[in-house]
Amino acid sequence: MRAAASGSGMTSASDAVAAGRGPAASFPGRTGMRHTTSATLAGHDPAGLLDFFAAELADHGLPFEQAQPGRYQSVMPAGALYLLREQGALRLTLQAGGLAQLHGLRDLVIEHLAEYSADLAAGLVWSDLAGAGAAPPNFRLMRALSVTRPSPIYLRVRLAGEDLHSFDADEMHFRLLLPPAGRPAQWPVLSANGQTLWPKGDAALHRPAYTIRHIDAKAGWLEFDLFRHAGGRATAWAEALRPGDAVGVIGPGGGGFPCAPWLLMAGDETALPAIARIAERLPAQTRGHVIVELGDAAGRQPLAAPAGMRVEWRIRRGHSALFAAAQAVAVPDTGRYVWFAGEKAQAQQARSWFRESRGLTADESYISGYWKAR
Ligand SMILES: Cc1cc2nc3c(=O)[nH]c(=O)nc-3n(C[C@H](O)[C@H](O)[C@H](O)COP(=O)(O)OP(=O)(O)OC[C@H]3O[C@@H](n4cnc5c(N)ncnc54)[C@H](O)[C@@H]3O)c2cc1C
To answer: Which among 11, 82, 231, 296 could bridge 93 via Cys, Cβ 3.0 to 4.6 Å?
Structure first.
């Protein structure tokens, strides 16, 4: 059943407005939520809008509650959304730890709000944005510094850029923005309502996700390990990349650093950069099991996993047996976390199996398809 927010107990004007304070002052913000933006949702019945937000958030398993009369909030892992009734309208405030996260949240809100009213979504004016045509806050135009081979199966690409501090936080992935071969790149821009506009048609960008393997935000560089596979557009791009070439990147996003007393990490070549980075940051007392499946034994690399974690390298013979290997691991009932990434169909199987047969909740697992076999 859809949650309703517009029931009794709401006032038409908020305490904050009555007290002459603006919405920012009425939301002290959570620790680490340093970035804020606001927009007024005018010309629509606030009660109907509140019901819409409540239902949409509930559909995505996200919280939505009335914090005080006339004030509503949804505090999510990636940020927070606040709604304040003021003078016959709703004031929407978004908060996040980084500009990139704030912009990602805004993009999602606009996308969903357009389902309620395309005109309302198109007419939003945000407090933090200068106007149409600017680069999205999570876009970086970087320069290639080097392409090396840390092992026969990877190309390690180092990129230089400015303002990389948001890339050195809790999210370790980003997307490369690759223009069609032989065409100059058209980068995404902001629309007047703050949404990211992507080039379309012949100018559409290929946007594969990668994992930041190393980063020095102060020195202004990050690097990632790209698995060389047949037919890969990103592989062809990296092989042709020369120092000084411009590279568009958007991020960071998705996938944090799991931490639990017992951890299972299982993945293939595309997941190894993330597994290696997570392993380096685990507390020394972490116990568990790491399974890495490769097509070529030459791709093995030293893993800085805690001593209490068993590291198992498996070589793929024809079909992948990654999921079967993960299934065979004895997962404890508590204090556990399962991290699994690989081909999409296997990840889907693994997600269902670990949830149904091992009772893993979303808080105890990250199970993600990193590529799709075609
Ligand atoms: C969160 C996240 C993090 C990721 N991190 C990394 C990373 O750090 N390093 C990395 O190398 N990859 C990583 N990946 C995987 C990478 O995004 C995909 O492999 C992507 O498809 C590569 O794009 P492409 O241009 O090379 O291939 P595409 O041009 O998209 O696909 C071309 C062909 O290659 C096939 N293909 C794609 N990936 C593979 C593969 N792994 N093995 C065999 N065939 C494949 C496709 O099925 C298709 O037939 C990550 C993915 C996600 C979602």
So the answer is: 82
